[in-house]
Specification:
This protein is of the alpha+beta class and about 200 residues long. About 25% of the residues lie in helices and about 25% in strands. The chain contains three helices and eleven strands. It has helices at about 5-35, 75-80, 85-90; strands spanning about 50-55, 65-70, 110-115, 120-125, 125-130, 135, 145-150, 160-165, 170-175, 185, 190-195. The strands form three sheets. Strands 5-6-10-9-8-7 form a six-stranded antiparallel sheet. Strand 3 and strand 4 form a beta hairpin. The protein is globular, with a radius of gyration of 24 Å. It starts with a helix and ends with a strand.
C-alpha cells in the first residue's frame, strides 16, 4: 500500500538516470550539429581598406612590395566572375574533391595566382607531390600575400589559408610538409589560376 524507502530510492534513481541520459543526448546532438556546421571563413576584414602585397611578374620575378586596395565585391559580382565551383570554394570556403582539380598533378613551371584577384600566391618551385590529391606547396611566394587563421569547422582544428587581397579561401596549411619549412599548403585547384612560365 505504501511505498517503502527502498522503492522511493529506486524511483528517484530512475528519474536521475533519465535526466542524465537526456542531458547527455542533448550534448551529443549539439556536438554533431556543431561538427556539421559549414565554415563561414570568407569575410572581408571590415577595417582593411588597403593591404600590403608583393607583386610578381608572370615570369615569377619578385617586384617591390606595394599597398593595394582591398578587393571587395558583392556575392552577385563574385557569382558573375567565377564558375559555380570556384564560387563555392573561394567565396564560401568549400573544398574540391581530392584528385579532381586540374592542378594536383601539374608539373609545369609557372606561377599560381588567385582565381578571384590574380594576386601571386605560389610558385611551381615550391610545389611537391603530397599524395593527397590537392596541389601542395611548402611555402607561398610571399608571406605577405596569404593569410592564415584558425578553422574549427567540422570538429577539426586546422589553419585555413586565404588570399590577403580579396579574402578568397584557398585551402589549409598543415605541419607535415617537407623541409625546409616542414609545411604543406594544401590548396584547392579551383581557387588558383596557373600562369605557365614561357
Amino acid at each position: 500500500m505504501f511505498a517503502s524507502n527502498d522503492d522511493q530510492d529506486v524511483l528517484g534513481g530512475r528519474s536521475q538516470r533519465r535526466k542524465f541520459l537526456a542531458a547527455g543526448g542533448a550534448a551529443l546532438a549539439g556536438y554533431f550539429l556543431w561538427m556539421l556546421k559549414k565554415p563561414d571563413l570568407v569575410t572581408a576584414e571590415a577595417s582593411e581598406k588597403e593591404v600590403t602585397i608583393v607583386p610578381f611578374s608572370d615570369a615569377g620575378k619578385r617586384l617591390t612590395k606595394i599597398k593595394v586596395p582591398k578587393v571587395v565585391k558583392s556575392e552577385d559580382e563574385w557569382r558573375k566572375q567565377l564558375s559555380a565551383d570556384e564560387f563555392e570554394v573561394a567565396r564560401h570556403a568549400g573544398t574540391e574533391r581530392a584528385f579532381s582539380g586540374k592542378y594536383w598533378n601539374l608539373h609545369d613551371k609557372g606561377l599560381y595566382r588567385c582565381v578571384c584577384c590574380e594576386n601571386a600566391l605560389f610558385s611551381s618551385d615550391t610545389k611537391f607531390e603530397s599524395g593527397t590529391g590537392w596541389p601542395s606547396f611548402w611555402q607561398p611566394v610571399a608571406e605577405e600575400n596569404v593569410r592564415s587563421r584558425r578553422d574549427l569547422s567540422y570538429g577539426m582544428i586546422r589553419d585555413s589559408v586565404s588570399c590577403v587581397q580579396c579574402d578568397a579561401h584557398l585551402g589549409h596549411v598543415f605541419d607535415d610538409g617537407p623541409q625546409p619549412t616542414g609545411l604543406r599548403y594544401c590548396m584547392n585547384s579551383v581557387s588558383l589560376k596557373f600562369v605557365k612560365q614561357a
